[in-house]
Amino acid sequence: MRARRWGRRGLLVAVAATIVLSVSAAARSAVPGTPAPPRLPAVKAGTLDARYAVNRASIAASERAAHRIGDRDRERHLHELAAPGRNFLSFGAEGDGQAVEVLGDLAAARRIAVLVPGSDTTIDTFDYLGSRRASLGGGARALHDELRRVSRTPVAVVAWYGYRAPRTMSRDVVSTARATEGGDRLRRLLEELRSVNPAARVTLLCHSYGSAVCGSAAGGMDRAAASSLAGLAVFGSPGMGVESAADLSGVPVWAGRGARDWIAGAPHISLSAFGGTLGFGADPVSASFGAKPFAAGTGGHSDYLAPGSLPLHNLALIAAERTSEVSRG
Question: What is the DSSP letter of 169?
Fold first, then answer.
């Protein structure tokens, strides 16, 4: 989009003022004494339990490290991640951390939904970001419950905080740099899921800045890899870093936006600056973009995965490939 009567600085200010989340968290350094990353078995169907066990021990060791230095907030959040019955495919506690949680049986599932979050996601906000329903962990649990309810086959959900999510009010949140890096990592996850369960159908569900990560991942796939994806749905999206759904390697694309989501006011621009790209291009819910619309209700930016909500139900139907039953926006 060509902006009129805007200088380069004005464009940056406009994008920064609108493509942000409402909750800000201060950046943090690594917890002193954080255990070194453990040696993990390769991601295979037969090694999942062993991998979960190693990561469970790593979370517990990181919790003890936080306790030793008196970091009560980090200790409390790690204690939640270490709750019995939770399984993590990947985990790291350095800095903002990384965490990839699995709900359900990856090896037995016939439908797998990968939930990709937006900015301000850290291991400290994994289970709590302003409200339980806005967090990655809480949203994944709600999605898993709804997906089990609507699916006719076994399902699993992957809550994927596997990239360096940008911070609110930082330049990174209006740049595609973190999305490009995250897209590479997301493609690697999809390869791992294929190695665990090549028969499963995988759908990407991408919120806010996470939709740009998904756009980078899908846009960088060859057609063979893209054919393994059942689909991709974006919600609360500022843009996917592409101008059309046709730029996403043939992956079926859905898009929805809540009636009270402030992201509707984001300027849909793409501007080369500072050696990178600022802004995320075309609006995915516009007719010209070419995505299939789904009804996302009357909620705001953090309401899409609220239990019992219309957007949650539609996203579960998309992941279950019961797309004829999705209510259209």
Answer: T
326-329 long-range contacts (CB < 8 A, ≥24 apart) are: 326/254, 326/294, 326/295, 327/294, 327/295, 328/292, 328/293, 328/294, 328/295, 329/256, 329/257, 329/285, 329/293, 329/294, 329/295, 329/296
Instruction: Report residue 83: phi and psi, to 5°.
Output: -60, 145
CA distance 140 to 144: 6
Of residues 104, 108, 130, the one with CA closest to residue 117: 130
- 273 phi/psi in degrees, rounded to 5: -160, 150
Residue-wise pLDDT tens digits, 161-174: 999 999 877 888 88
**Matching residue, tokens 């689909």:** 231
What is the C-alpha to C-alpha distance for residues 54 and 281, in angstroms, rounded to an integer?
41
Q: Is the pLDDT of residue 181 over 50?
A: yes
Global pTM exceeds 0.70: yes
Distance CA 238, CA 265 (A): 9
